[in-house]
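Dear colleagues,

For the upcoming journal club I promised to circulate an example of a predicted protein-ligand complex. I picked one with FSX because it came up in last month's discussion. The inputs are reproduced below in full, followed by the predicted structure.
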Amino acid sequence: MMQATFFDETTRVSETAADVVARRLKISRREFLELCAATAGTLGLPMGAEAAIAEAVEKAKRPSVIWLHFQECTGCSESLLRAEHPTLEKLILDVISLDYHETLMAAAGHQAEKARKDAMVANKGKYILVIEGAIPAKDKGIYCKIGGQTAIELAKECAADAAAVIAIGSCASWGGMPSTDPNPTGASSVAEILGKPVVTIPGCPPNPYNFLATAVHFLTFGKLPATDKLGRPLFAYGRLVHENCERRAHFDAGRFAMEFGDEGHRKGYCLYKLGCKGPETYANCPTIGFGDAGEGNWPVGCGHPCIGCTEKGVGFAKPIHAMAKMLNVVPPTQYPRIVEDQGKGATFAAAAALAAIAGAAAGGGAMLARNLGLSHKAEELEKAQDAGKKNAQV
Ligand code: FSX
Ligand code: SF4
Ligand code: F3S
């Protein structure tokens, strides 16, 4: 007896874009739509955008991508491909046509160089150039050569006819780890070498979803997403780590881990005093997690302070024990009581008085200092109010 197959001709006629791509990727339609929804969410697009993404992934011509590697550890590519969720890299490789990638391509030597040149000619003015790694500029760039060309020459040659240039990882975005003092090779960012702004996706390594979302934005809308003045897509780097951190309530309440493994650390308190750089680092790590490995999977979520890996002048530059500068942190409108007399609850009036004190303080650093002393101030205020009331009654 003939068995009906799922993808018979009748079914295909009514297939949606999502069905087609799901079949192509050998994943379920549901998994594919979840990825599209996650990508739309990462990009900050409204509900329903996943359908447009699914359609673009099905119908749009995959942009040719030439991916160069210079001074780096290949962690950017690894994080993209070693994601726990097996469909992420499938989707990335379905969204783009990766025509040259030294780590992944089977070709080597002259064959590999030919593949790069062929892709550049065939897709002139249309390909995306992705650069991973810093570019050594000292001594005419002799510290990094591929196929007889320096990284400087290669970057300039490939960028000349590219539709867009994306610097992936902190090394390519701002110099990263290779550029740390004393920077013996003169490791520089892609923008410095090309002399023009490029889209940057910093992080060491960067979150693969931020690259995927940038590529999907290009595919769906034909242009790269809006960026800040450092070339970072705003959807991913528009807010400080501190703004969305799940431990933020502890910061606001003045509850800090003081040592690794102490009670505060075990209870998940704020890591500011262990040197967390979340308050001066722009990245979406707390909101989208890391490595596609599930909830809470990002540095602070795992109990380690953010080292500011996305941020020039912070990551690999500022010692881990150094306190972060408080940037742009909006103080909360009211603070909880931290120390109470036994059997006595906080009153609304005390909370309001505290809010007034908090509101008067300008700047996060001042806020932090005040935060630590607020419980005592609250008590003093309340005592003064009680004394005032008693005097009025006499
Ligand atoms: Fe490594 Fe990439 Fe760090 Fe750099 O990621 S993870 S050293 S940012 O260029 O490979
Ligand atoms: Fe989170 Fe760090 Fe900010 Fe604390 S200082 S709330 S751990 S980002
Ligand atoms: Fe990097 Fe900090 Fe995110 S160390 S991965 S920016 S939490």
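Two points we might discuss: The beta strands are 64-69, 97-101, 128-132, 135-136, 145-146, 149-150, 164-168, 187-188, 199-201. Residues 1-11, 343-379 have pLDDT under 50 and may be disordered.

See you all on Thursday,
B. R.
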